[in-house]
């Protein structure tokens, strides 16, 4: 279709662009007008990230033909602030309503549209207006609060900067916050060079197949816009990758054979101007389908020749005499639970571009793990690691899946082969088909107590569908047996796990690495045991909670910092109130039945029994700037801010004095991956160590004691001690090779030990703990569940930033709600965000957070990890509450209306 | 070479339709998701320049909803209570963003079994107006939608309006949508009910259920069973209904068995909404 001249008013300015009439307005804004604040999450109206105001009304720009916008006024996020941020933008910052920030522009526009028509909306009106925008990080509650607080003529004062020495424990505006609300933040797809080639990935439409490539030379010459076609034979290095090198088994481009739907087989590099008219369906390839298996119990032969019975890894933790002791149990509960594939559904699909800088390949992309990306990409492309530089962009959610490489080797190969920049942003379908998922689990367990209600033995057996390739399957298989007891004293125990290959999508890391699945099994049996014992369900858990001095199921004696009982006890008044409310709600024979559930979590922070170091560098420049080289990728959770807060207090300077140098393999030392709830704990500890080391160097130079105070002003460092005062002219000092006058770089690696053949040892240096109460109403005729309230008590050791901690809790709960009630990825059937459902703003109830602080001796300022813990208790507490409401336990999640109603019918038989 | 045209009058559009195959485009909310990132290979007839197709008007005998009328337009229009079900459905179509651009006629032409607009329109006995260079015709909505993604529209025809007979625009109505989450959700099932009540008895009943068959269906047997009965008896009569018109399938949203149970319940809920205090007196 030939182009039209389209005239638009954009943020108050008249603009003329030439575009095909049916080009999506979102693409015109981003590609032609360079307004990349409008985000693309699905290109189908399912996520609302591209919401703009068209003549004042919110629309999805991805569904608006450019020609339809002709003559209209368009407002984008870039038009919300004048010289200063709007009250709504300030309110988003003040409330912590932006985490990763990818959905933030969509929310800001939808909310602006509402507030302009209705300056004083009710909460229900806010929900109705924002129901079309999905957020995967925040759990929505802070967004609702931010919009309500910005209503009317409220002006928002910026949160005060914490004073010197008071950064830890304060909740300043996140250091990377402003670009997230003004549209300037650059995510993976937001900074493509204008001359970059577009990379199109040809993928398998089959779950398992052989394929033959056709005449690629003829194909390429048929379209002058194609700059190159690349297949496995073009991959310079060893065509195998995987996050755990010993198990690396996945080709970046398949070699004549594919093991899952969505596997990449070839790349077409094409001029970006020709992309809209390019039909990937014409790629010359012949497929021969082969029988496939999507579940571990109907496997059709080996998916990898080297792995008999499709077993990737088995895990075991055994302690005491579980079988024998079980025989003496006064009460025993048995059960089975099945879980489904869960998709991470971050609103930002994987995206990035690669370009050569001399002989160095530079990959600018969203990620959770820059150093791992570098190493795997270098191996695939046969480059020395120092010739690959990974520059992480802002990452629009990760939750585990962006630990694995996706676009990196593909764009890297094209840039390397063509010498040109190469860009790729996955479509939503491509992202869902080809990247990792939460493992579906099929579990059975048995737990026994004595007559007084003490757990005496537990057995657990879990089969985890690990999909076509290894990814983090071994981690899941090893983590689950360590955690399947829950944070409860379980003296006799055996937990077996197995990660089994299928032709399903690759199962990898997803917030909790299998522990959320296992906890559903354990916590639902706990409710059954409490019932058999006639004990209150919360008190039963308190009785059995691990305490300081107890041994875990791996025989690790936890000397201090065990906060689970504190969490459960903090819930007591809420539990009593909730039970009381329930009694009132269930008077009479209504269709809606109230139920209350509780569940706990514990979670070891960092890698399981493996080295897990982080290195952080801090330098003082001759101009008097303090630069924190902070390589822990902030995927929205807040490491940029939290690690800076730790560094500020450890160094003894105000937070505002710290300048961030964020993750980049050329600029920041390796702070490991953003995973395993390790950044606050491990990288935070490295930051604390390196800030203290820097302080020590400065104090020694000034020859003062640790009681001295530091002050930096206009290139001079002043040191005060009592009446004494010493000023150092920084510009007069010699520079080190990095250009600093003072510099410290420290590494922290948490002390762990290997697990023996029975799984005994000290797998983690630190555990975090938590417990949640869910109150809900079940519609007993329709099987639908309406959440009423969630109360969450989490032991974070020390809340470095309470607002960010709350944000983690609320966001994790939202993902737990999704897992419990609606999320089920079916390969080939739910590859979009309207068949695959994640919670909307109307699905997350009020959440009351209780931050419990039982300090840990190991963590920085006593802090423990939190990021994954928070979603673990939610799903089991929901299932327990449904059972409490109806008498029916749903044994497969998600507990869809169909499954809930079937369970109710079954229970009443 | 694919063509694009943006006529400003219906006559101009019909002339184009008579000459070639065109894909009519209005709100585009189903067009782009179906297209994905494949190149557009159809001729596209953009209806968004035709002002006469948008808006709601009245004749002596009918309410007339122009084909380009958006779901937001429906919500904001002054219409009698018989349209309440349609307005409630309008608030449940996708999201506010979708409602601002998606059109009523587009919902019918897309012919999804889960189209939220269809059950309330069925209870209003609507007729779909189709125009072509050959002339104009109106057909009942039930005759227009033939199956999943199939309609009776001929290639040279354009849906120009939806006609609601005034004798069907009587009584009270309600809509109930059942989905697995609160917003932005494709229905597992939905029901629309319109009743005329006189002296506590049901004088007229129109009941339609969607997403439980390839095309949303009127529950004729149940309607017949209800007519003449005390309104207070409705719950028992609905509870006993067999609803043989429904032929649900198992899919990602729910099982067939569940849908049958739920259909009866949501029809009851819609009745219940009508009987809420204040409503009957209105």
TrEMBL record, chain A:
Named from the GO MF annotations, one term is:
2 iron, 2 sulfur cluster binding
- Keyword DNA-binding listed? The answer is no
Q: What is the superkingdom listed in this entry's lineage?
A: Bacteria
Q: Which UniProt keywords apply?
A: Iron, Metal-binding, Oxidoreductase
Which Pfam family, just one, is annotated for this protein?
A: Ald_Xan_dh_C
Record bears the keyword Protein transport: no
Domain 2Fe-2S ferredoxin-type, first and last residues per copy: 4-80
Name the protein family: Belongs to the xanthine dehydrogenase family.
Q: What protein name is recorded for this chain?
A: Aldehyde oxidase
UniProtKB/TrEMBL annotation, chain B:
Q: Which InterPro entries match?
A: CO_DH_flav_C, CO_DH_flav_C_dom_sf, Diverse_Substr_Oxidored, FAD-bd_PCMH, FAD-bd_PCMH-like_sf, FAD-bd_PCMH_sub1, FAD-bd_PCMH_sub2, Mopterin_DH_FAD-bd
Q: Which residues form a coiled coil?
A: none
Q: Which domain of life is it from?
A: Bacteria
Cross-referenced SMART domains, in alphabetical order?
CO_deh_flav_C
The FAD-binding PCMH-type domain covers which part of the protein? 1-169
SUPFAM superfamilies linked to this entry: CO dehydrogenase flavoprotein C-terminal domain-like, FAD-binding/transporter-associated domain-like
The protein's GO terms of the molecular function aspect are: FAD binding; oxidoreductase activity
Which keywords describe this protein according to UniProt?
FAD, Flavoprotein, Oxidoreductase
Put simply, this protein is called: Xanthine dehydrogenase family protein subunit M
